């Protein structure tokens, strides 16, 4: 299964869904959680008859949306991508090859940021959601924008913290994994691409959210 938490994602959700359907390995189940969107996100999702839709009547945030998607999924292996992310066609194949290898229970990929425009370029330099060009075993945390894991481990860890609504739920979850002495890995070749096109206002809001929920700026 692969799920997408979506909130007001009308500009990107179609591309995100299509990138799942074009994977080199067929996905058994696609789930989209519409988290109280006020735009046309839900209408776009409904055009895809093969997608399982979960509707939050009000916005409940990332922690809740991740938990409900995993809870309602029918498979033991669960992947997740954000609603403004497009997967490389081999993303799933690369991640699956490493999942549970050497007891890895969770795998994260490499999200490539946009560099067109000064705000996207700045974000790519200081707030990129990847760990670089080399694989890394047990990174500080796995970015929630593109991961794959076992549902049984999610049960064991009692899921994501639902009080973390906009950011930080991935860092908190990674800490739970570490406390159980479980192994994770970051795969530089498992690429996906960030569609977010920031301006000064959206970038400022993004920085505020990151620091409010524990995301630390990377060293230059």
If you had to describe this structure to a student in words, what would you say it looks like?
The chain contains 8 helices and 9 strands. It has helices at 13-21, 41-46, 62-72, 91-98, 118-126, 151-156, 169-179, 200-212; strands spanning 2-6, 30-35, 51-56, 77-81, 85-87, 104-112, 136-137, 146-150, 183-194. Strand 1, helix 1 and strand 2 (30-35) form a beta-alpha-beta unit. The protein is globular, with a radius of gyration of 16 Å. The N and C termini lie far apart (37 Å). It is α/β, with parallel strands linked by helices.
In short:
By secondary structure, the chain is of the alpha/beta class.
In angstroms, what is the radius of gyration? 16 Å
Helix percent band = 25-40%
| Overall strand count | 9
Order of helices and strands: EHEHEHEEHEHEEHHEH
Please identify the structural class as seen in this structure: alpha/beta
Strand content: 15-25%
Give the overall silhouette.
Answer: globular
- Mean model confidence by pLDDT: 90
Gap between N and C termini: 37 Å
Largest sheet, strands/sense/barrel: 9 strands, mixed
Residue ranges: pLDDT <50 for 5 or more in a row? 215-220
Counted by DSSP, the helix tally is 8
Name some characteristics of this structure.
single chain, 220 residues, alpha/beta, nine-stranded mixed beta sheet, 8 helices, 24% strand, disordered C terminus
Topology:
Elements (H helix, E strand, L loop, with lengths): L1 E5 L6 H9 L8 E6 L5 H6 L4 E6 L5 H11 L4 E5 L3 E3 L3 H8 L5 E9 L5 H9 L9 E2 L8 E5 H6 L12 H11 L3 E12 L5 H13 L8
Parallel strand pairs: 1-2, 1-4, 2-3, 6-9
Antiparallel strand pairs: 4-8, 5-9, 6-8, 7-9
């Amino acid at each position: 299964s692969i799920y997408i938490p979506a909130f007001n994602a009308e500009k990107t959700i179609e591309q995100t869904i299509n990138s799942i359907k074009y994977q080199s390995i067929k996905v058994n189940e696609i789930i989209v959680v519409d988290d109280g969107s006020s735009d046309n996100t839900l209408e776009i999702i409904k055009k895809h008859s093969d997608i399982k839709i979960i509707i939050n009547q009000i916005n409940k945030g990332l922690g809740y949306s991740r938990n409900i998607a995993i809870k309602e999924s029918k498979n033991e292996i669960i992947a997740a991508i954000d609603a403004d992310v497009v997967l490389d066609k081999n993303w799933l194949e690369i991640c699956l090859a490493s999942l549970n290898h050497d007891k890895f229970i969770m795998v994260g990929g490499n999200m490539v940021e946009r560099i067109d425009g000064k705000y996207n370029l700045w974000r790519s330099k200081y707030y990129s959601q990847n760990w670089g060009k080399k694989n890394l075993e047990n990174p500080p945390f796995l970015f929630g924008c593109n991961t794959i894991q076992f549902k049984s481990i999610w049960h064991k860890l009692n899921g994501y913290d639902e009080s973390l609504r906009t950011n930080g739920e991935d860092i908190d979850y990674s800490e739970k994994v570490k406390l159980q002495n479980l192994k994770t890995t970051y795969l530089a070749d498992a690429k996906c691409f960030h569609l977010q096109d920031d301006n000064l206002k959206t970038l400022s809001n993004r920085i505020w959210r990151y620091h409010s929920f524990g995301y630390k700026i990377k060293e230059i």
